[in-house]
Amino acid sequence: DGFWTDEACTQVTNSKSVNLPATGxxxxxxxxxxxxxxxxxxxxxxxxxxxDEACTMLTNAKSVIRAEAAHELVHFDAVEPGCHSMGCxxxxxxxxxDGFWTDEACTQVTNSKSVNLPATGxxxxxxxxxxxxxxxxxxxxxxxxxxxDEACTMLTNAKSVIRAEAAHELVHFDAVEPGCHSMGCxxxxxxxxxDGFWTDEACTQVTNSKSVNLPATGxxxxxxxxxxxxxxxxxxxxxxxxxxxDEACTMLTNSKSVIRAEAEHDLVHMDAVEPGCHxxxxxxxxxxxxCGTVWTDEALTQISNHMSVILPATGxxxxxxxxxxxxxxxxxxxxxxxxxxxxxxxxxDEACTQITNRLSVILPATGxxxxxxxxxxxxxxxxxxxxALFYMINGLLEMGDAESCxxxxxxxxxxxxxxMLFYMINGLLExx
Length: 432
Fold this sequence. Notes:
The protein has 432 residues and is mainly beta. The chain has 7 helices and 38 strands.
């Protein structure tokens, strides 16, 4: 067990002195134990294999490989994919080496992507906005799943989307007394996020928009204003000084809004007319039949009125007065009237305000009434008529009016009528 540094064995040494230390390497690689190999360290500089980090337990490439792989397998059954959940084929997975196989004997290698089946998708995804009571989320009624994102990658559940404590954005409304045409309200708190109403600040007394409002008291003094050239139709309440566009007072407006931006007149142009002795004239003017306004210029800047555009009659000293005359049987009469020869006009009053015409003042003659037995038509029944009737019956004179000649009224004119007329004239018979 001796050590020398010369072949003649004259230079004695020892085991430690003859060894030179390894130079070392910074490239030593550590390989974790797996289903296929034991734990080892490998040096790429000298291509050596060791079983310890201090590199005292030398081995080789073959010795670090297990004779038989030692997988820790987990079996996964096939799962049908859902609308928002992936499915998978049947496979086996090793949690040690992260390997995937489609058979239990681990001969059919695959990977994590290949064993998964994509979700089928759904068109019924519902978006729920964030509110005081819940966070924003998406819900699928087909698979009853909840997600925090529209891509449905952040799965959650029904409980997790509900806030632990409601986060209301409250607005406080003071109580307001109702008016005749304006509603009032009780004191309440309103959340603009969830549209909730409460009658207490702690939000324990739930109410609604109808319950917090107090109805208007109403008014009997509502005034209706018809539409005109200057304004639209509206209703005005003098009690609350409110303006509305409907009688039910639901369409609130204001005094400015009921006035038209531009007036809409129905204009009539009146030419200038010279006055006469008994007739008024007028200046040229424009008149609106809708609002009754009068202007003296077409641009409607010079407002006037009906009295101002009238020119008074000039008058006449030649007016003639005619007294009333009763008509006779043969002569016309007339009513009382006044006549102006200057303007050829007729009036029923001296002031010449009641105009009429020539025909209207004439009273026609009454005409002579047919007298029974007045055969000769002289207006008097006497022996001359009896004689004339006798001659007519005997054909000596042309027959006169049948009504006057048929004295007895039997429809025939004969000697009986002449005889009866003779008796009547002499007072021996009363007139029929």
